[in-house]
Amino acid sequence: MADKTAVKKHHEPLIHIVKRDDIPEWQAWLIRGATIIVALIFVGFLSMLVTEKGFFETYKIMFSGVFGRLLQGSTKMLWKYLQEIAILLCLALALTPAFKMKFWNCGAEGQALMGGLASIFCMIEFGEKLSYGALIAVICITSIIAGAVWGIIPAIFKALFNTNETLFTLMMNYIATQIIAYYVYIEGGGSNVINPVSVGNFPAVGNNDYFVNIITVAVITVVMYIYLKYSKQGYEISVVGESQNTAKYIGINVKKVIIRTMAVSGALCGVTGMLLVAGKDHSINTNLVGGQGFTAILMSWLGQFNPFIMVVMTAIVVFLKIGVAKVADSSFLNSSFSEIMVGIVILMLVGCEFFIQYSIRFRRKNKEVAK
Q1: Which of 42, 155, 288, 303 is deepest in the core (most CB within 10 A)?
Q2: Is residue 11 part of a domain?
Q3: Is residue 7 a part of any domain in this protein?
Q4: Residue 16 belongs to what H/E stretch?
Q5: Domain membership flag for residue 86
């Protein structure tokens, strides 16, 4: 019996997602810049429609909400804006080494809370017993250690038992929150409130309470850039992130790198908690970080793990958060309106990154393959 060649229609998916060839860096950044501009315009129009204010009036309110009366010489609002950037940026910088190593640290909130707990504990227990300089030193050291320890715990389990770091760090957030709630309840005499502590606070410079925080994060930004790009440890982080098998082949101790990198990540989160307690709130509660640990994940990723790009991305997001909140207040809208607008902008930026990396191709019509 003669063989027959059958021709069948091959039903391909309607849409193919194909990874692009490397596009020039300048072109990628041109696309990102255009996306940011479009996102800002979109937010302006959407705010205009909801608030029934003019487009330019909306942005005027946003700028006044962020910068205040800067043109009249008042820098109070500007410093608050820079302070908000500093806190979010410090969390993003803390997460970057772990993410570059492909260790998905979702525990920035908990690590920062533990750093803040160490700070407030030292301020209350040692405030009247140590000199100011010694007290600040103790606060810094204990906050860094507390954050580092909270980061090392999931790292050890990942390195030794290959546990899921995402779930582990998320659960550590929950534990840290409950520890803070218990401490606040005990220290507050059952009132769930700790009155602001007057000792151990960072000094004001020129009547500016946030100067130390901003300078500290600026220094951390430069150091983190050098650490990731030029240090041996930064190189090891990159190699482990690319391929653990390759790292092992060239003699890198992967377990050691995982634990060490998470110690650095947790320590910087602890610094953030310290800045919030000793440099800003002078107290602590379970909402100390305010969910910024999760926003910092996006800032690190959208910044391409580059600290200087993260500065720009953080500045844009914080501007929108504060500015749109001011627009909402002026129109008696719910405060969640600001979060919605920020979420839309972040979604657009994430989509931009997707289309830079991938292209969408549709199925060809009437395609047949012979079997």
Answers
A1: 155
A2: no
A3: no
A4: strand 15-19
A5: yes
What phi and psi, each to the nearest 5 degrees, are found at residue 187?
A: -70, -25
Q: CB neighbours (10 Å) of residue 192?
A: 12
Give the separation between CA 42 and CA 294, rounded to whole angstroms: 24
Q: What pLDDT, on the 0 to 100 scale, is given for residue 69?
A: 80
**What are the tokens at 310?**
């993260």
Percent of the residues in the chain that have a pLDDT greater than 70, as a whole number: 95
Give the C-alpha separation, 317 to 339, whole Å: 10
Positive/negative CA dihedral, 259, 264, 269, 273: positive
CATH number (domain holding residue 88):
1.10.3470
Q: What percent of the chain has pLDDT over 90?
A: 62
Q: Tell me what the pLDDT averaged over the chain comes to.
A: 89
CA distance 264 to 101: 12
pLDDT digit string (tens) for 202-239? 998 877 889 999 999 999 999 999 999 999 999 999 99
Query: How sure is the predictor about 54, in pLDDT bands with cuts at 50, 70 and 90?
Result: confident
Residue 4 lies in a domain: no
The distance from CA 126 to its chain's CA centroid, rounded to whole angstroms, is 32
Domain count, the chain: 1
By the 8 A CB rule, do 321 and 332 touch?
no
How far is CA 59 from its chain centroid?
25
pLDDT tops 90 at residue 197: yes
Alpha helices in the chain (DSSP H): 25-51, 55-67, 76-100, 108-126, 132-161, 165-187, 211-230, 232-242, 244-249, 254-276, 292-302, 307-330, 336-357
3-state secondary structure of 371: coil
State the Rg of the chain over Cα. 25
Which pair of structure tokens corresponds to residue 258?
């995982």
**Would you give the DSSP letter of residue 275?**
H
36 C-beta neighbours (distance < 10 Å), count: 17
**Domain membership of residue 143 as a residue range:** 22-370
d(CA 307, CA 154): 25
| pTM (predicted TM-score) | 0.90
